[in-house]
Design brief:
By secondary structure, this protein is of the alpha/beta class. It contains 17 helices and 13 strands. Helices cover 38% and strands 16% of the residues. Strand 3 and strand 4 form a beta hairpin. Pfam families: CoA_transf_3 (PF02515). This is Crotonobetainyl-CoA:carnitine CoA-transferase CaiB-like acyl-CoA transferase.
Length: 406
């Protein structure tokens, strides 16, 4: 039994931050009921290509985006614009511990599905709302998108090549980090709220905002500004205070070299057959290398291009120089450590046959995470949920389908 096997989550969220949160809870054992729009479903079901392929190599209707954030869930389709659909949600709330939603501020109030309304029928409900800018403030009613928030929250101001270098400009992350971190913070908040409820019997509202999360995760960068009033700037893949501490090209790809002291620098250039660089008075000590980086780095790049990535990693590891590859995803899943940790898993799926997913990174000795079911097809569990929790018979369920309620 998972650590959260006693918890039921009603998930009205779509796209990334909310589903990422509920998937974390599901991996830990919670039962998650995913509520989707009839006939359409979560927006990310249609975000492709790429789509998951079946055993014959043909595309299924399952987008790779959707499946990465919706395993271990059951899907029910409910039309929230209909009073009968709203009543289904209220009945499911009575059977649930947690509700997660990411509608615009006040959108659910018109259906009587906001926290103020639902707490009247379930006082101990834990209600987690995820929005771009939170429930208060002048931006509360603005739609929030990860890309915009990465810019507004300062992340892009310190990400990308420095001004004056080729390609120097602000850069977003390769994945939606504001969404993902908000989902992780929301998971933690919900777990804290569950503990509080178990101790006191009191439910509560959780107000999560992408912008709040993005500013908070700036960590030492934000702290440095608040302490000094100096605006941090972009340094790309280099360090402002250590050289060489950056990416380098090899004959067949890229690697990272993180030289932390003068001895490591000497080993680095010796392995590359350029011992003289360590004896050069402009490069012999780190402060000098920082001062003369524009002269030194091109010489090091010419050196690193003479060997393959694998050759460099092996030689530098042998000589104690911190280094690592920059792997593409094929190389990631071929890596022996990734394979040893079993980060790629396969689960049976109704349309794909077998679906490959990334395992949860959470490792617990007593209550391990478990991938119990593949991401659901749209409305896959509608009828069984209506029977199980609302005690409806076949004729009542058929009527709901006929009238477009589910």
């Amino acid at each position: 039994m998972g650590a959260l096997s006693h918890i039921r989550v009603l998930d009205l969220s779509r796209v990334l931050a909310g589903p990422w949160c509920s998937q974390n809870l599901a991996d830990l054992g919670a039962e998650v009921i995913k509520v989707e729009r009839p006939g359409v479903g979560d927006d990310t079901r249609h975000w492709g290509p790429p789509f998951v392929k079946d055993a014959q190599g043909q595309d299924t209707a399952e987008s790779t985006y959707f499946v990465c954030i919706n395993r271990n869930k059951r899907s029910i389709t409910v039309n929230l614009s209909k009073p009968e659909g709203q009543e289904i949600i209220r009945q499911l709330v009575l059977e649930s511990d947690v509700l997660i939603e990411n509608y615009k501020v006040d959108d659910l109030a018109k259906y009587g599905l906001d926290y103020a309304s639902l707490r009247q029928i379930k006082p101990n409900l834990i209600y987690c709302s995820i929005t771009g800018f939170g429930q208060t403030g002048p931006y509360a009613h603005r739609p929030g998108y990860d890309y915009i928030v990465q810019g507004m929250g300062g992340f892009m101001s310190v990400t990308g090549e420095a001004d004056g270098f080729p390609g120097g400009s602000p850069q977003k992350a390769g994945v939606a980090i504001a969404d993902l971190f908000t989902g992780m913070y929301a998971s933690s908040a919900i777990l804290a709220a569950v503990i509080h409820r178990d101790r006191t019997g009191e439910g509560q509202m959780i107000d999560m905002a992408l912008l709040d999360t993005q500013v908070a995760m700036m960590a030492n960068v934000a702290s440095a500004y608040l302490s000094t009033n100096e605006v941090p700037r972009r340094w790309g893949n280099t360090s402002p205070i250590v050289v060489p501490y950056q990416t380098f090209p090899t004959s067949d790809g890229w690697m990272i070299v993180a030289v932390g002291n003068d001895s490591q620098f000497r080993h680095f250039v010796k392995v590359g057959g350029e011992d003289h660089l360590a004896d050069n008075p402009r490069f012999s000590e780190n402060p000098l290398r920082v001062q003369h980086r524009t002269e030194l780095v091109p010489l090091l790049e010419a050196m690193t291009r003479k060997k393959t990535k694998a050759q460099w990693i092996s030689l530098l590891d042998e000589h104690g120089v911190p280094c690592g590859p920059i792997n593409n995803m094929k190389e990631v899943f071929a890596n022996e450590q990734v394979q040893a940790r079993k980060l790629a898993i396969s689960v049976p799926h109704d349309t794909a046959g077998t679906m490959k997913l990334v395992a949860s990174p959470i490792r617990m000795s007593a209550t391990p995470t478990e991938i119990r079911t593949a991401p659901p097809t749209l409305g896959q569990h509608t009828d069984e949920i209506l029977r199980e929790y609302l005690k409806l018979d076949s004729s009542a369920i058929e009527a709901l389908h006929k009238h477009g309620v589910v």
